[in-house]
């Protein structure tokens, strides 16, 4: 599958790219700067030995991807998504975005929409947004020689879209768990703020979660 990763020059997007490329998917790294995306794609090709990793502007990446992944800061959504709405129409859009504000105040700062995923859905009305991968740390994703030690919580309003995303999780060895509608994206994004705090306390970078009792 052709997977566009907007903001794929960052740690989370690059980690997802490495895992999906290893599973045989074709990756288009997106950036505000196409040259930066091409450079990151070249770096990832060298790192993974996988050729179908290319770089492009966010707009071109969104056009080329069958699935579009949002891996950029929450503060960039309102700026980035409106002009991509047509290119995302009819597609599954995966939000990994966590509304965090660094600098000493409150870390978890959800938008008025309730969650970044719901904000993205409002900005991309023709797309089907699914929230997932928030709590899969970039550190875990990029350590491609190792299995990832956590579950994948997936939420969204469309069962087929959720199954597409669950399959992308299984492609990197994750157990996918259906976590209900997009209204549950807020709690899932909030868990990541908690994991970030735990990472800081325990001097780690890869705290994750597993659901028991299933
Ligand atoms: N890092 C993690 O372990 C982790 C774990 C779970 C979830 N997440 C979430 O995944 C997303 C990406 O995380 P990250 O650590 O990779 O973030 P990041 O490095 O801060 O940002 C990723 C990319 O987004 C682009 N970007 C930065 N500011 C932007 C803006 N104002 N508007 C549009 N694009 C902008 C940049 O790419 P260009 O300059 O090339 O455009 C940057 O390389 C975040 O929402 C984060 O909360 C991260």
Query: Which secondary-structure class do the elements indicate?
Result: alpha/beta
In the CATH hierarchy, what is the class? Answer: Alpha Beta
How much strand? 15-25%
Give the neighbour order of strands across the main sheet. Answer: 3-2-1-4-5-6-7-8
Mean pLDDT: 96
Helical proportion, percent range: 25-40%
Question: What would your notes on this structure say?
Answer:
By secondary structure, the chain is of the alpha/beta class. 39% of the residues lie in helices and 18% in strands. The chain has helices at 11-22, 34-48, 58-64, 77-80, 85-88, 116-123, 138-142, 159-170, 185-201; strands at 2-6, 26-31, 53-57, 67-70, 92-95, 128-131, 151-156, 175-178. Strands 3-2-1-4-5-6-7-8 form an eight-stranded mixed sheet, sandwiched between helices. Helix 2 (34-48) links the parallel strand 2 and strand 3 (53-57). It binds NADP nicotinamide-adenine-dinucleotide phosphate. The site of NADP nicotinamide-adenine-dinucleotide phosphate has 26 residues, from helix 1 and helix 4.
